[in-house]
User: Fold Alpha-hydroxy acid oxidase from Porticoccus litoralis.
Amino acid sequence: MIHQWQLSRCFNIDDLRKLAKKRLPASLFGYIDGGSDDEYTLRANTSAFDRYSLMQKALVDVSEIDLSTTVLGKKIDWPVLCAPTGMSRMFHHEGERAVAREAAKSGTFYSLSTLSTTSIEDVGRETDGPKMFQVYVHKDRELSREFVQRAKSSGFDALCLTVDLPAHGNRERDLRTGMTLPPKLTAKSVLDVLLHPAWVYHYLTTDAIELANVAHKIREGSGEVSNLLQYVSKQFDPTVCWEDAEWMKSLWDGPFVVKGIMSVEDARRAVDIGASAIVISNHGGRQLDSSPATIEMLPKIADAVGGQIELILDSGIRRGTHVLKALALGADACMIGRSYLYGLAAGGQPGVARAIQLLRTEIELDMKLMGCRQLSDVTADCLYFRDQ
Ligand SMILES: Cc1cc2nc3c(=O)[nH]c(=O)nc-3n(C[C@H](O)[C@H](O)[C@H](O)COP(=O)(O)O)c2cc1C
Ligand SMILES: CCCCC(=O)C(=O)O
Assistant:
């Protein structure tokens, strides 16, 4: 009851962020919220949208607005997909299930991370909505092959290879808080956790939270996990290159997505290997700090490969206007990570629903105000570029 009321008092994604900050132990909030090094890219991702203004077209009948589009062979009801994010059950006990359900309800893709806390099979059973599985390639290639097979058998529609994590980014907030799975017990972290009794209650009374897709390896002792940073450096394969991406694609019959593309050259290579889509992404500013904002790279990439491959943009999207600017610059769709995670942490499934509702309502209203009735009306003519 109180949660619903608090969610209804959240009028934008930043309000959900503030509520999430209250609900979560600081280490977990910092893990979601933070970026790498000085967090330059984290900030730039969102602030770079301000360099573009949106134009309004007058006297257009906007009584009916159509937000639907087709991405990866599936018709979706609005042009925003839910990005893969690891460890969602740490932020709310319903975790991935809650997000997958709300993505399906809103008629869009859910993406399940390799490092999820709900298994491929459980998410497959949970939702009939469009879904994609995201792979991190482990040194144990059989495990990667197994992931692809499991995603196929569980009815996933698309496979996504994330290519911007050859090593774990330097996330200093996590180093300071000692963010680990399970949480590291220090006087400070115990106090922090105790100040969040609702979180503790759910943490202690739900099934064990583990990295569900690799848990069998960890139990066998071949996947040892003390903290994420160490897990990545021990288990992820830093030799992965384009030939491996081709190999991964060859294991999968359906749409194949390469996530973490930031240059024209890499976008062209993704076209060459026959990928269906790229996600123009810098991992939400969590990997290479000083990487440009994704919206800055989009026009060049759209010029070079637009029309040959679908372009999905993520990193920094907090507003409907951000989505519209990306579409006007040539993206086919966008993805959100933190926007729905703040909702999840703030209020579980209703919190995710609120995040989705806020963004979707903003996009619809902004289209009315711009005089755009459908997404194909959102073109470069809708933009005014301010070179500051
Ligand atoms: C807490 C968290 C966990 C993430 N885990 C993954 C992951 O497991 N796999 C992946 O490809 N990307 C992961 N990402 C990156 C997102 O897929 C996405 O690229 C990023 O969140 C977009 O930026 P935004 O959060 O500003 O929307 C994660 C992001 C966050 C915030
Ligand atoms: C190995 C990193 C864990 C998931 C992730 O991609 C992220 O936190 O950004």
